[in-house]
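Posting this for the archive.
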Amino acid sequence: TMCCFLAFIGMEKLIACPYKRPNALCRLICFPWTGGGTSQFAQWGKLFSSSTEVLSVRLPGSDPCHTNPFAKDVTAMVNEITSALLKDWQEKPFAFFGHSFGSYISFAVALHLKEKYGLEPIHLFISGGQAPHISYRILISEAFLRMQSLSVRADEDEDILKYVQSLGGTSSELLQDEDMKKHLILSIKENTRVLRTLSFEKAERYIPFSCDITCFNGSEDIPYDVEGWHDLTRGDTSFYKLPGGHFYLLEPSNEIFLTKHIARCIEYAGL
């Protein structure tokens, strides 16, 4: 009983789910961006019908109110998420949505589930990210190159803040809070380090997934080579550009489009 209680506490630290729906037919697991997004995605629960339960993963650094230790590497992060949610994934269908850093982690978790357990999402929704085998061919994309070029020395912190402000999505009030600002800078440094440990070389004729994949991007964000997702699934791939920059999904009209489209895709999956 104590082991079960500790496992529950561990899951509560890792997962946010304010709108619990034990009778839902499907779970939508959301993977946020660095330094935010957990509460945003957790609130998506009220935008879906009773047939879908929405969970948001608290990635290290994604939620300043829950200071999870930063992961050693992508493998450690994937293992932690999998051990917390494997039972849920085994008992009913699930879909993944990941934005930016979260898109790469959602891919890594999906790949691990498929290769080790024979499980895969009914749909993989990717936002603000490109196919990882393409990413590594060109060193993750222009934005990540800019991140990689930043030093981890303290005197480079202002460059990181300028980079964050250029992306948008972070309130000026938050950036004026010294503790929040330090936490955000540390999160970006640590998650950039973690992302460097993601290694996926696509072998010829190797197609890891059979689920449909949908990619969303902001029309004013840097261009992502999203076509590479075609090579990773036998299912259909779709691409949508919505008005806005890297954090286009924070715009209420875009959020409505996203959640309605995701709900429709899950419904079409035959649940």
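The chain has one domain: 12-270. The CA atoms of residues 15 and 57 lie 5 Å apart.
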